[in-house]
Amino acid sequence: MMTHVQLYIDGQWRDGASGKTLDFWNPVNGEVIGTVAKAEQSDLEEAVAAAERAFRSWRSVSAYDRSALLRKAAGILRSRLDEVATLLVREEGKPLAEAKGEVAASADIIEWFAEEGRRTYGRLIPARAETVQQLVVREPVGPVAAFSPWNFPVAQAVRKIAAALACGCTIILKGPEETPACCAALVQAFAAAGLPKGTLALVYGVPAEISQYLIPHPAIRKVSFTGSTAVGKQLASLAGLHMKRVTMELGGHAPAIVFDDADIAKAVDRLGAFKYRNAGQVCGAPTRFLVQERVYDAFLEGFVAYAQAIKVGDGMEPDTRMGPLANPRRVDASLAFVEDAVKKGARLACGGARIGNRGNFFQPTVLADVPVDANVMNQEPFAPIAIVNRFSEAEDALAEANRLQYGLASYVFTESHARAQIASAGIEAGMVSINHAGLGLVETPFGGVKDSGYGSEGGLEAMEPYLVSKFVTHARI
Ligand code: NAD
């Protein structure tokens, strides 16, 4: 069954001006399963003009009415959960249960932002004269250009869309070309809820052409990007050149410090689940497991057993716990990481190879005692590869945790309150999760420091970038 995904511009689903399309594939077997319309510059011009027009009225719709409309979209998405989750499995590969979880969480995200949009309070500042009133008014920043990736095609897109719309901004989203149908299904839920035309647009095409056009465009007031650090730096530079506000949710290489007083069985289960979720293609996935000497062997043995027990297969099969990688690039990258690490002296504790010769299946992999010069110790693997290394003193673990320029998620396992405090204070990361993997809830901040980017896509902090403060001082005559 072939799917054709169209662009959504000015309230219309339509093909690009040139009629050109791009193919996308099922990662289970590499077969083309659909085509997506490719936007040309004239399509983008229309999208920007519509977003600019729509902003004039959307900004004045009351927060109460905007909230009602967003909640309606959440309800529609929830009612289509099975259908959207199936699209997601077909084009991205994750197991159906994970896909359903992503769509359900996306509906929750819309609702949370819908409610939070009603609380974008300003303030009243006491004046120095009785006849003066001083106000700080929160206003939407303007039309937004957003870029969302393929690993969570619904959940990453919805954080940007819901936050922007809830704050009164209009938004043009460049969706992921490799997983376009589920992202389009998300946009359809907003359209079906009655969102005014031009308020939300969805485009696909050549990513660099789209960002080069949208970011400098004078009508665009804010840019939000989720993806690799390399691309994020290019887009942030372009945005800086044109004085655009930016949120950057980029790569990570999360350390997971396991102290010798930790509950090892719990550490293995909780970190194992987070490591291999979405086949490791998660920016906040634990990657460098730093385990204290005394419990190193027990942790490694447990973690290898965990990895080997994972049933890898087609995400539509009910017993599959890990699907294929989303694209062949990730398989090639995974093989290269393993080969390089082993060549430099790492022990391959399990996995390390492609499964079969059809689709993008890769074994859950554990590398032990990996030298610091191995590529996988320095570049984000974005793959089901865990590195299990040892440390003796807490300061050694912290030094290793902070060695890289990444600073997104981090994990600590210990029964000691003091160790937990020292580690969480010492780690240079946007998020620290202690004794569980508790990151990514919409009501909590989600973002990084250093090369992992800036800004947040969760919690109250996620509203800020879509709002500007206007100071109004009013003297009575
Ligand atoms: P990539 O760097 O080519 O692309 C990453 C994302 O950026 C994609 O969604 C792509 O469409 C978009 N992109 C690329 N060039 C762009 C441009 N000039 N303008 C606008 N958007 C652009 O890499 P990839 O092979 O797709 O993914 C591999 C790496 O990307 C991973 O190793 C990981 O570091 C990173 N990544 C991170 C996240 C995240 O959640 N932070 C998500 C997906 C990918």
UniProtKB/TrEMBL annotation:
InterPro entries assigned: Ald_DH/histidinol_DH (IPR016161), Ald_DH_C (IPR016163), Ald_DH_CS_CYS (IPR016160), Ald_DH_N (IPR016162), Aldehyde_DH_dom (IPR015590), Aldehyde_DH_Superfamily (IPR050740)
UniProt-recorded name of the protein: NAD-dependent succinate-semialdehyde dehydrogenase
GO molecular function, one term: oxidoreductase activity, acting on the aldehyde or oxo group of donors, NAD or NADP as acceptor
PANTHER family with a match to the protein in the record: SUCCINATE-SEMIALDEHYDE DEHYDROGENASE, MITOCHONDRIAL
Family: Belongs to the aldehyde dehydrogenase family.
Superkingdom of source: Bacteria
CDD domains reported for this sequence: ALDH_F5_SSADH_GabD
Record has Oxidoreductase as a keyword: yes
Residues in Aldehyde dehydrogenase domain copies: 13-472
Pfam families for this protein: Aldedh (PF00171)
The entry's keywords: Oxidoreductase
